[in-house]
Amino acid sequence: MVWSPETGSQPVRGAIRTAWAAEGAESGALGYPVAAQTCTDGNCTQTFERGAITRARTGETTVQRTIDNAADAAVVVNKQRPLNPVTYVPENLVNVEGQQLRSDAASALQQLKDAAAADGVAMSVMSGYRSYEKQAGLYNNYVAQYGQEVADTISARPGHSEHQTGLAVDIASPDGTCSLQACFKDTAAGQWAAANAHRFGFIIRYPEGASETTGYSYEPWHLRYVGTDIAVSIHSQGIATLEEYLGLPPASDY
Ligand SMILES: [Zn+2]
């Protein structure tokens, strides 16, 4: 029996339990079971917070993880995990201040901005969705300017950028103070985002001191929409990175 306040008590048995344990059990990519397994004609499936495991009649187990699905808000993209396909284009992109975000991330961002404004904190949107081609141009410019080693610490290679999911947004102070610089954390917008972003389903994806795990320098302006379940859970448990929360290996390099 496995219990959590959100999912209640659920049994996980047999081959499905073995496969779930191999994924890190409740501390892994799949999370807690949300229902007992159901079987039809000897083929059994059990759903988890972030995926499902199927045990076929033949005994073969198949694991589906939402973190592998580019269209899911739980997708994990880093230097070890390119988008699949690498040229992925999200559906339902909508305009936000001249940038594009996926509609679920866009409405969450609007709520975040409205709540910040109600607290007297103004925030602007600098960058949202970037296509594979746009990221390629950006990355190649950084390589030409700084060399590949430095470029890899500040810009993702095409197919490896969270901005290509439509779920990542770079925010700024409207007056431009510390835009895309670590000192953004000391601005009103940066402080408000760090304290409140989780309530709207966003995390500071590249926190301070976590570059060995994330592969990126501290980016207090880069918010990633993961949905409120994950964002609130990461915040309340005091976990620094999405990789650690999901039991994934560090992705410091390609
Ligand atoms: Zn960014």
Description of the structure:
- It is a single chain.
- The strands form four sheets. The protein has a four-stranded antiparallel sheet, covered by helices on one side.
- The relative contact order is 0.12.
- It has two domains: 2-68, no CATH class; 93-129 and 165-245, 2-Layer Sandwich (Muramoyl-pentapeptide Carboxypeptidase, domain 2), CATH 3.30.1380.10.
- It starts with a strand and ends in a 9-residue tail after the last helix.
- α3 packs across α4.
- The chain contains eight helices and twelve strands.
- By secondary structure, the protein is an alpha+beta fold.
- The protein has helices at residues 14-22, 103-118, 132-146, 148-154, 188-196, 211-214, 228-237, 242-245; strands spanning 2-4, 8-10, 38-40, 43-48, 51-55, 61-65, 93-96, 99-102, 124-127, 168-172, 202-204, 222-225.
- Helix content is 29%, strand content 19%.
- β5 (51-55) and β6 (61-65) form a beta hairpin.
- The longest helix is centred in the middle third of the chain and has 16 residues, at 103-118.
